[in-house]
Amino acid sequence: MRFIMTTSSFAAATSGPLLFSLPAPHRFESGAVLEGVQLAYETYGTLAPGADNAVLICHALTGDAHVAGSGSTPETARPGWWDEYVGPGRPIDTDRFFVICSNILGSCYGSTGPASINPATGTPYGLSFPVVTITDMVRAQHALVSHFGIERLCAVVGGSLGGMQVLEWAARYPDMVEAAIPIATTTRHSAQAIAFNEVARQSVISDPNWRQGEYYGGAAPDLGLAVARMIGHITYLSDESMHAKFGRNLQDRENLSFNFETDFQVESYLHHQGRKFVQRFDANSFLYVTKAADYFDLGLERPDSHAAQAFAKTRTRFLVVSFTSDWLYPTYQSRALVAHLQRGGRDVSFCEITEKWGHDAFLLPNSHFANILGGFLRHVC
Amino acid sequence: MRFIMTTSSFAAATSGPLLFSLPAPHRFESGAVLEGVQLAYETYGTLAPGADNAVLICHALTGDAHVAGSGSTPETARPGWWDEYVGPGRPIDTDRFFVICSNILGSCYGSTGPASINPATGTPYGLSFPVVTITDMVRAQHALVSHFGIERLCAVVGGSLGGMQVLEWAARYPDMVEAAIPIATTTRHSAQAIAFNEVARQSVISDPNWRQGEYYGGAAPDLGLAVARMIGHITYLSDESMHAKFGRNLQDRENLSFNFETDFQVESYLHHQGRKFVQRFDANSFLYVTKAADYFDLGLERPDSHAAQAFAKTRTRFLVVSFTSDWLYPTYQSRALVAHLQRGGRDVSFCEITEKWGHDAFLLPNSHFANILGGFLRHVC
Given an 8 Å threshold on Cβ–Cβ distance, is A239 in contact with B192? Predict the structure, then answer.
C-alpha cells in the first residue's frame, strides 16, 4: 500500500509536520523495544509515479522536519532551516525531487522522544525512554521511506548529525542510496567532541530542576540547558568568525562595567542563544541527541564492521563536503572518510569549501556550496 | 628599609606562603579602594646584596605561590606547579636567582580576594570585592617587589594569565624589567576566549547555591563550578592530545552503557577534573580571575595606549614563547606581539615550540622549552 500524501504536491509544506506511525514496534540498538513510535515529517515536491525521485534530508542536532518554505502554521511560518538549498529551482530542486525530511527519533518536534507520553503510564517517558543511536534514527526513517513505496532514494543529504545519518544510511541500506552527501560531519566523534557534549550534558544534569529528567509539568532545567547551548554555540562558530562578528566590541556602553554583567557583545550573543534555545528545545531530548552523536562510530578501521563491509562494495556515489574553519568536525576527519572510500575504489567526490563561519557554515548561504550541491545532484540523479 | 626574608635562603620554600601587607590602600583600576590588601607569596634562593638577582614568576588562572619544591606544610607538601623549571640547576636556577612568586590579587590562596573577610562587616566580601584587572594584580606585585628593595627584576616570567601579567609588567614598569618572558599567552582575549570564560561564569552563576556570591558558610555552587572547570579543561588540551590520551576509549567496560552514566574515559577525566577543582578553588574567585583575563587588552594597536608607548622605547628584552597546539591563545596571537615589537626595533626573540599538548604544554615537562628558557636567562641576566 502506498501512503497517500495529500500535501506532497506542494513545493512548500503548508500544513506543518505530518505524523507517521511506525508499523511495528521499534527495537532500539540498546535492545529496548518501544511500541507506537511516530515520526513527524514534511515533504516537498511530488513523488513521481515510479517513486524514483525522492531525496531524504536529515537534520542536525536540534533541527526539525521543516527544512524549506514558509507555510501557514506556527510550525512552518518561519522559513525552513535549509530554505537556501531546498525549493523550486534551488540546489535540491523541489520541481524535480520529492523531498522528505523527518524529525529524528528522540527529538521534541513531533517525533517520539523523552518528552512524549508513555501510553503505559500516561506521563512523559523522561529517562525511561531508551537511549537513541544514529542507527535507531535511520531505521525509523527507513520505515517512513518504505511506507512511501520508495525502494531507492536518489540521494540522502545532511550536515553535522544529519551527515552521520547519511553515512549510516549508506552503510545500512547501500542498495537504497543512489547518492550520499554527508556534509560537515564525521564518521565518529573525537574525544574533544565527546568532551564538549558531556560538559553540556553535565550542565543540564547539574541543574536542580532537571530532577533525573522528571521535570515535566514543573520548572524545567532552563539555566543548565542555556549554558549547554552556549557551549555548543562556541563550537559551531570559529575563532575567525567570532572575531569578525564581535571582536572585543562592548555591548552597549563605551566602558567596561567592572561587574559581572554583560560587557562584551559576544557574551550578549551567547546569552541570547541560550535563552532562545530553552524556549524551543526539551532538555531531555538534548541529552539524548548529544548522546547519539557521541555513540556514533562507523568503525571503518574494523574490516568486520557493517559500514566497512558495506563500503567495500557499495555502488553509492558519495559527495563529501567539509568547511575549512569547521573545528568541531575538522576537514581531516572528512578526508579520512574520503581516503577510506578511495582505497576501496568507490565513487567519491570531495569538496573542502573555504569559509570562515566554522561548523555552522553548512547552514548559511554559500553560492559555492550551492553550486556544488546542485551540480552533483543534477549529475547523479 | 629592606624586608628581611628568613626563608629566602632556602632553595625550596618550606614553610608555606608568607603574607605581605600592602603598605597603602590599593586603588583598583575600577576606581574602588581597598585597605588591608595582602599577597601570599613564596621565595626561593637568596637575594643578592645588590638585590639584582630577582626573578618574578607570575602564575596562571588558578595557580598559587607554590611554584617549586616540596616543603613541610600542607600547602607545600606537593611539588610546586613549575617544579620542572624552577629549582637548583634548573632553567630558573635558584642557586643563582632569587625567585618570587605571589598568589594573584582576587585569588583564594592566601591573597586578598572575594572569599576574604571584609573587616568592615566581619563577613566575606563576596561580590562586594572590586573587580580585579591584570593591572591591579601587577600593581600589587610591584608593591611586594619594591618591599624587597628590588629596583630592577632580572626577569618576569609567566604562562597564560601569568604571561598577561608579564606583559603588563613590561608595559607599566619598563625600567624595572630586564627581561620579559610571556609564555602561551596573548595581548588580549579573542572573542572565542571571552566566550569560553563567560559560559564558564554563567555555569557558576546559574547554580542556585551561588546566591549572588553569598554562599560562604553554606552550600557552595560546586556543581556549576565543576562544569565551568570542565569547559576550561577542554580549552587547555588539544584535539590531538585528547585523541592521544583518550580517543574513544570506554571507561571500564567493553560496551556502551546506553544510559547517561560515564561511557568514555574522556568524560571520566573531565568529571574528575571538575570534582578536584571545587575542592580547591573558590567559585567567586573563579569569576574574578576569568573576568580579569577577559578585560586584559594591551591595546597595542592604539599608539596612545600605555603599552604601545612603553613598548615603543623599552629596553626590556623579550622572549615570547608559544606552543603549536595551543588553540586558546594560538601562536598567531604571539606572532602579532612579536611583529609589533620588531616593527619598533625592540629586542625580541620568538620561539614556537612544536608540542601536541595544547595550552597546558607550558606546565608540562619539555626539554626544548627548558633549554630555551634556561639559555635565555643565562644570556640576559
Answer: yes
Mutation choice for A interface testing from B29, B194, B287 by most A CBs within 10 A: B194
Separation between Cα atoms, residue B289 and residue A3, nearest integer Å: 61
State whether A23 and A143 are in the same domain: yes
Residue B1 resides in a domain: no
Q: Give the pairing of strands B18-21 and A177-183.
A: unpaired
**Residue B72 designated active-site:** no
Which among B116, B160, B241, B285 is annotated as catalytic? B160
Q: Is B290 on the interface with A (CB under 8 A)?
A: no
16-45 in A: which are within 8 Å (CB) of B?
Answer: 29-32
Residue of B203, B271, B327 with shortest CB distance to A203: B203
**Residue-level pLDDT at B380:** 87
What CA–CA distance (Å, rounded) separates B245 from B360?
14
pTM: 0.94
Indicate if B175 and B135 belong to the same structural domain: yes
Mutation site, A212, A239, A298, interface B, largest B CB count within 10 A: A239
Q: Is B229 on the interface with A (CB under 8 A)?
A: no
DSSP run (H or E) holding B200? helix B191-205
Alpha helices of chain A — where are they, by DSSP H? 134-147, 161-172, 191-206, 222-236, 239-245, 265-280, 283-295, 306-313, 331-343, 367-380
CB contact under 8 A, B206 and A227: yes
Cβ atoms of residues B43 and B99 within 8 Å: yes
Neighbour count for residue B45 (Cβ, 10 Å) = 26
B263-305 per-position pLDDT tens digit: 999 999 999 999 999 999 999 999 999 999 999 999 999 999 9
Same domain, A183 and A245: no
Q: Is A11 on the interface with B (CB under 8 A)?
A: no
Which residues form the domain of A184? Answer: 6-190+298-380
Do B273 and B316 fall into the same domain?
no
- Mean pLDDT, residues B239-260 taken together: 90
- The confidence band for B70, taking pLDDT boundaries of 50, 70 and 90, is confident
Q: Does residue A102 share a domain with residue A50?
A: yes
- pLDDT at residue A16, as a whole number: 76
Tell me the pairing of strands A317-323 and A177-183: parallel
Same domain, A306 and A364: yes
Express each pLDDT in B84-107 by its tens digit.
999 999 999 999 999 999 999 999
Same structural domain, B210 and B76? no
Output the pLDDT for position A10.
36
Find the CB nearest B234 among A196, A233, A271.
A196
* CATH number assigned to the domain comprising residue B104: 3.40.50.1820
CA distances to A19, A29, A35, B214 from A22, rounded to whole Å, are 10, 16, 8, 53
Query: Of B292, B310, B339, at which residue does a domain stop?
Result: B292
Interface test with B, best of A258, A285, A290 (most B CBs within 10 A): A258
Measured between alpha carbons, how far is A369 from A191 in angstroms, rounded to an integer?
29
Residue ranges of chain A with per-residue pLDDT less than 70: 1-15, 253
- Structure ipTM: 0.92
Statement to judge: residues B58 and B82 lie in one domain: yes
Please check whether residue A260 touches B, CB under 8 A. Answer: yes
Q: Do A194 and B248 touch (CB under 8 A)?
A: yes
Among residues B264, B292, B320, which one ends one of the domains? B292
CB pairs under 8 A between A and B: 155
